[in-house]
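Structure ticket #2291
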Amino acid sequence: MPFDFAPLFPATLPPPAVRWTGAPKYNFVGGNNDPDEIPLDGLIAAAQSVMSREGRTLATYGLNSGPQGYRPLREFLAHKLNRDAGMGCTADDILIVSGSLQALDLVNSALLSRGDTVIVEKDNYQGSLNRFTKLGVAAVGVPLDKGGMRMDALEAALKDLKARGVTPKFIYTIPTVQNPTATVLDESRRARLLALADEYGVPIVEDDCYADLVWSGQRPPALHAMSNAGNVIHVGSFSKSIAPALRVGFIVAPWQVMSRMLSLKTDAGSGALEQMVLAEYCKPLFATHVPALRKGLRKKVETLMEALNEQFGTAAEFDDPKGGIFLWVKLPDNVDSLKLYQAALKEGVAINPGPEWSTDKAHSQSRIRICFASPSHQEIRDGIAMLAEVCRREFGVPARSANVTKAGP
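Resolution: structure written out below.
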């Protein structure tokens, strides 16, 4: 008999993971990117170049750059963030981490305790919402419109919390290509957000992981850049601009916070090879790679919107996204997206059900998040056709194929 570990597991452990059996045929979940847009040749050349020149620094934890990460990568980021987002940070203000999820874990560990409250956009990143729940932190959701988080609703939430004697630990926001709605907060709303944060004495955690994927290439200045109070912690990643499997993210924070996060980051440093290759590749080539990536992603979302209009007609409501890799879709109220997810998965179609991406389960019950970056154009068309077939079978929506015209009398 094999040894039984079950009695040794603490009661606080999450449920066991399900063994992976392969990706679904039509995979519209996760933050995966377009495999055809990975700059493979450039990364291979960068790896060869930097390893030939600096490979022996792998013998030292931190690559002789200290605990904040490979210095050439931090220097590239400081230049890029100043150029693109208006941020006046230096390499010493940046901490390299193992993807933005580690960044969020470090921020949460440094600032949050069980019973605390944070303010978030009502529709939000599942990874953040799950972390708040696990920590026993209350997440107060603020509604969004086509312009992102509504400032009138944010002010109302702050007033209500203050009246109840609650000071939120921070406002967590994804202001540039929000996940899952793909909205972009304009500069006037950013200024109002910062003013409210100052007025109520609440810092901001700015998750900027999708900011490179604004279709126009012109993003508003980062909240971090606009803040005069120094109360914004900025989180970013290379997962969406280069490749998610690299697991390289970063934090820009005041030293008062950075020093605490460094004491919590006990992994002896994030992956060295990834940092070295990224620094070598990005300095000469990042600025030309990203526009090509955006162009390819824009074509894919156009294919997705066309497929939804063809297969669902008016039964699928969505806004043309301003960038990113996701489409947030509203189906008729009788559609339970959790049940649709389960039924579709049996047919090889994976989608994200809305309740997993919102603080308001009723509001998001008939919503789904679709990642369009990874599937091919044909897979998008075929997968949405299959999704429509499953939705019709389970919920009667759409009532018939949306692309079939009614015969005349």
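Closing remark: The chain is about 40% helix and 10% strand.
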